[in-house]
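Database export, one record per block. Field names are fixed; values are copied verbatim from the stored entry.
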Amino acid sequence: AVILFWEAASRAEREQNPVAQEQALTAAAKYCFDQARVHAALGRFQLDHGRTEAAVRSFKQALALDAKLVPAYLGLADAAGRTGEYDAALVALKEAVRCDPQNADALWQLAQLYDHALGVADRAAAGYRQFVRFFPGDPRVLKAQERLTALEPVAARGRGRSAEATTLAATPKVKTGAGGREPVTAAVIAT
């Protein structure tokens, strides 16, 4: 039965008939309710047509049926990112990478999230480096290398500040007490 619904949905997509495509996907989800990929496909359709809440429900249903279905995690992350729920997007993308470390889209989206939405330069750079190493033939490698070039100085400054803060935190500072006569030791708290 699922094959018939897939064929109907594919035909409707080729004919650029979103109403028929949604009907086929909705029927597939109803009659093949135990098929995680059907729910993920319905979620992607819903998300692509601006129905984010419905898409989230479909992606969650897909994941309830198959906790390792990477397309459902990617869709859930996309939906969360569109609504500004970057923490939920981060959790979904980390889970997608954990389930399939060789999934180029999962790793790319995780690096992009760290880079553009969260502004965590060192993690974004690490993600881009891993992407370039694992997927040298992917056309996004050029963009990853451009971002690495831009992020490396920022990430290095961040690492330098962290190392400096750690060193300062471990080094007692000597201040002059009241009247300038008595030394007082003060600890520095790294933030």
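Remark 1: The two ends are 58 Å apart (CA to CA).
Remark 2: Residues 141-170 form the longest helix (30 residues).
End of record.
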